[in-house]
Amino acid sequence: MTSLMTNTSSMVALQTLRSINSNLDQTNNRVSTGLRVNSASDNAAYWSIATTTRSDNGALGAVKDSLGLAKSSVDTVNTGLDTVRTALQKVKEKLITAASPDADRAKLQTEIGSLLGALKNNAESTVISGSNWLSVDSSGANYNATKAVVASFSRTGDSVQVDTIDIDTSKFKLLDSNATVHTAVDAAVTTSSATYATAKTTAETAYTTASTTATTAYDTAIGTADTTFAGSAMDAAAVAARDTAYATATNTRNAAVATADTAKTTALDGAVLALKNSLGASGTNTLGILDKSRVAATDNGTATVSSIMDIDISSLTSSQTDLDKIANYTSIVDSALTDLTDASTSLGSTASRIESQTNFVQALQDANNRAIGALVDANMEEESTKLKALQTQQQLAVQSLGIANSSSQSVLSLFRG
């Protein structure tokens, strides 16, 4: 039955065309955006997960930027330490030259002073983003030796956590202008040096007294042996008795001198240890590698207290005491070089950790991007095929609608005469 009021075929064709157009619009949207889930209405669960993961990826990007800045800072500090170590090595070489009897120590001090000035300038010029990790003032209200670098971002349910890599700059700072500590160290140097000098004099006096006593006893024993031998028959037995007396006297003297020498060495070692402990208690170990007071002592008991920045050989002569002082300066510089090497090693480990963490964060971002893609990305091959099919279906639906609409025209032929 054909009805003029209700065209069922046209209605079906129109409904089909609407469905095809809706699917075609959806497919066109996926092809143009590359996403099969572009809004919450497409798939609320997937869209929510993808949106949260994108947010986390943004946070990881900020973490990676922070790590990159930290790596740059560590590299800058390492460069500063390398420059200082090279200059300090030259200072050590000048001191070794100064140990020569005919060295011009005044001129050598001019060169050393120039190198020490360069050390200070290098430390003060190693600035990273307005901050200096090598030349500091630990008395400042806002000073913090620990530099916390954002290293990771993680999410567990609704809880997020930000972790850091802590860099302790006190391990490699070169200069610290903390006036309070410097004043305490200077006072300790004066007091403890005087105490050491007294202990050294006491130990040397005790050694001299014991050595003199042993020598006097030896001379007496030898004299007695000679007198006994002169009054004897001077036969083989007398000669053997004299030689035995000689040997006993020599062994007794040597043992007494050795005991006195051991006592002197023990006393001097104890005095040097007390000197170091006194300086440590004054806070010198909280200062920088270049301005902390160090103690060095030769085997004969000559001790020297000095920081790297206070080395001065301009007035030293070729006396044994002054040569010992030069040797102590060399030991002090060598100790500072060891500290610089340790500092660079520590920073190198930190740089490796930062680089490793950067690679890990990048891997996390890549994994998140893959997860997002798996949830919301459109399969372009599938969508392309579907697009072509829907376009064909659309054309057929339009033709079907046209046929359905034209069916009512056939009714007019019934009324033609």
TrEMBL record:
Residues 331-415 form the Flagellin C-terminal domain. Keywords: Bacterial flagellum, Cell projection, Cilium, Flagellum, Secreted. The keyword Secreted applies. Residues 6-135 form the Flagellin N-terminal domain. It holds the Pfam family Flagellin_C. It is found in: Secreted; Bacterial flagellum. Gene3D superfamilies: f41 fragment of flagellin, N-terminal domain. It comes from the Bacteria. InterPro entries: Flagellin, Flagellin_C, Flagellin_N. Belongs to the bacterial flagellin family. Flagellin is the subunit protein which polymerizes to form the filaments of bacterial flagella. This is Flagellin. It comes from Ancylobacter vacuolatus.
